[in-house]
């Protein structure tokens, strides 16, 4: 009986070594897994900077708000930055001890204004908790980026009406290192000389959500 108990303890240790969890989600390091996480429409939004010290925050998708904006509005010269929130916990999340192999952010481009314009995009990992946007989340000095990637090449009219995939593997690796409960990104025009182009990202809560809403695909082991 004593030997049986020792064997049981040893086997349990092996299982715990091979597995990891976040909210009871286990995985085996011998295999690769892929999970797809849709953004949370209640926390997605954008922030428009209306002056050097004032902002307009739009958060939460409603019947009248089904998209988020990035870039500089050519009609008003105000800048928009979009924020997307992907929960990492739960049955479709990523285990806390997982090793990230790759991560891609898919976004569906609804429109580009003007349609002849091009816009370089920067995606930054941020951490706004609780996940309620405030105006100063727009400010990169007040809400600094934890990591960032550029999305080559710049977006143009050929991206409108299609899903675009952005490699955000370094951001997901950083989120995992920090044990973040949500993968939160700020999407903005990669600023050099200001480019007056406004890009609209689909975030529908309607019947097309499974095909057009922001999606994070993560492969890990």
Describe this structure in words.
With 221 residues, the chain is mainly β. It has one domain (2-220). 14% of the residues lie in helices and 39% in strands. It contains three helices and twelve strands, in the order H-E-E-E-E-E-E-E-E-E-H-E-E-H-E. Strands 1, 2, 3, 4, 5, 6, 7, 8, 9, 10, 11 and 12 form a twelve-stranded antiparallel sheet that branches. A hairpin with a 5-residue loop joins strand 2 (45-49) and strand 3 (55-59).
What topology emerges from the helices and strands here?
Blueprint: H1 2-18, E1 33-38, E2 45-49, E3 55-59, E4 67-72, E5 79-87, E6 100-113, E7 119-126, E8 147-155, E9 163-167, H2 169-177, E10 182-189, E11 198-202, H3 209-212, E12 215-220
Antiparallel strand pairs: 1-12, 2-3, 2-5, 4-5, 4-11, 5-10, 6-9, 6-11, 6-12, 7-8, 7-10
Descriptors for this entry?
twelve-stranded antiparallel sheet; single chain; 221 residues; mainly beta
How is the main sheet built?
12 strands, antiparallel
> Low-confidence runs (pLDDT<50, min 5 residues)?
1-21
- Mean of all residue-level pLDDT scores: 90
Helix share bin:
10-25%
For the CA atoms, what is the radius of gyration?
20 Å
How much strand content do the residues show? 35-45%
The structural class is mainly beta
In angstroms, what separates the terminal alpha carbons?
A: 36 Å
Number of strands: 12
